[in-house]
Specification:
The chain is α+β, with helices and mostly antiparallel strands. It is built from four helices and nine strands.
């Protein structure tokens, strides 16, 4: 059952020696594709959910009906008229159930580890989630990352929001090397 769930989550078609994240898909969407293959430019603009502070990257929500994910978000460079995809995130909500999220995260992590022995895996443990604005103290996340030799990455992370546990979630992310480096650059360091 665990393997079946993982196959549904990733919908991938890559051998275990693959070192190219573009072979992987979330809801049929891959890194390196054009978002225009999935949405019109008007739909992309109507579904913008977030623009990073420096406006280098934008996130649009992909509103295709999904039996697996509650939400799918796609990152691309804000000024790129080809809308080349640099990140894809599938989110599953665990309403008031962070322990359920950790259990599912462990299942997905084990499947990835067994299938992709050449990736560099890192379990970061539970870290403080630094949020801007009036986010409550005590919010945290637990990321596990898998780095490919070419710099691309898959991450499987559980997020717990102390002030809104109804939106605790598991996020499975595919990221290009460029987006991985961008996120590292803008991320605030976690203070344990």
């Amino acid at each position: 059952l665990s393997t079946y769930l993982f196959l549904i989550l990733f919908s991938f078609s890559a051998p275990s020696f693959a070192d190219d994240i573009s072979d992987f898909q979330i809801e049929g969407v891959s890194i390196g594709d054009s978002l225009l293959d999935y949405m019109s430019e008007e739909e992309i603009k109507e579904n913008v959910g977030f623009v990073y502070e420096d406006k280098k990257f934008t996130v649009s929500y992909y509103n295709k009906s999904s039996e697996v994910y509650d939400e799918v978000a796609i990152e691309y460079k804000s000024k790129d008229k080809t809308y080349k995809i640099h990140g894809v995130q599938g989110v599953i909500f665990f309403e008031n159930n962070i322990e359920g999220c950790y259990k599912k995260q462990d299942e997905v992590e084990k499947e990835i580890s067994s299938m992709f022995t050449e990736t560099k895996k890192k379990n970061w443990g539970i870290l403080k989630l630094h949020l801007k604005g009036e986010a409550a103290e005590g919010s945290m996340y637990k990321p596990i990352s898998f780095g490919f030799n070419n710099g691309d990455a898959i991450s499987v992370s559980c997020y717990h929001y102390s002030d809104m546990p109804q939106i605790d979630n598991l996020k499975i992310s595919l990221s290009s090397k460029e987006f991985v480096n961008y996120i590292k650059h803008i991320a605030e360091p976690a203070n344990n």
